[in-house]
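Quick one: examine the sequence and fold tokens given here and explain what the tokens say about the fold. Here goes:
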Amino acid sequence: MSFNEGSGLDTSQVSDLRGGMGTKIAVGGGSLVLLIASLLGIPPQLLQGLGLGTEQSTQQQAGGAGSITEECRTGADANERRDCRIVATVNSLNRFWAAELPKYNMQYPLPRTVLFEGGVSTGCGQASSAVGPFYCPVDRTAYFDTGFFDQLTGQLGAAEGPLAEEYVVAHEFGHHIQNLTGALEYSQQDPQGAASGAVRVELQADCYAGVWAANATEQVDPATGEPFMKPFTERDLQVALSAAAAVGDDRIQQASRGYVNPHTFTHGSSEQRQAWFVHGYNTGDPAQCDTFNARDLDNP
């Protein structure tokens, strides 16, 4: 468990479009690898050899009975339910960055967060679950299909645990910070390659996720006087690192193609993603996340 049971949750920071409110798109057993392929720039046709390239129609269900407004009230709920855990993580991230950015003479406009299933209309266009968790800079919104996390552990082999999910949410919020600083533009100007702008953008978002994790347990819930989150254990950190490794370019390419081509990297290798998360966690300082001037992305 990650959150102190008595901490209050602010569901106004998350919009829940599941349960028929979003666009329904049928997905099947191969959707996750196609999803990750989309994120990493792998042509879907390369995945046919895995037997995962064909979609079969299935009906997605909402993440549980009741809306998040009704069900997600306390840290105890966040420890039991994934959707509530996303709410709690969003609350924590917004607390941290709202306090941190003014140190750099920057304001922190809260991003929107949307839970969806199947598909969703965004400021960046229509998106299906096959694009995975993502941040749209146009509408400053982070989008999450909660079913992704089952696939992250079930098909990509990440270890199960709350910090794996929280790492993903924190990574997407890292893109919001980059949208505010202008760094996000580098992913479009230099879109692929082992030392490309795209890779540096993603590794910086991993570093920002580590910075949040380092500071998350210092935030106090004013209603209870207790820390909002419990200290992370070594097991928690290993789970987060497992998730970071699971979505490395090299691991995805090896699974989909049978070989690795660094010239087409867009997110960084598994070791790099782990290294930059650890660097952010060890320093606790977003100023130390300058991937763009790093000469060696393997050793922050």
Remarks:
- Residues 21-65 have pLDDT under 50 and may be disordered.
- The chain is about 40% helix and 5% strand.
- The longest strand covers residues 112-115.
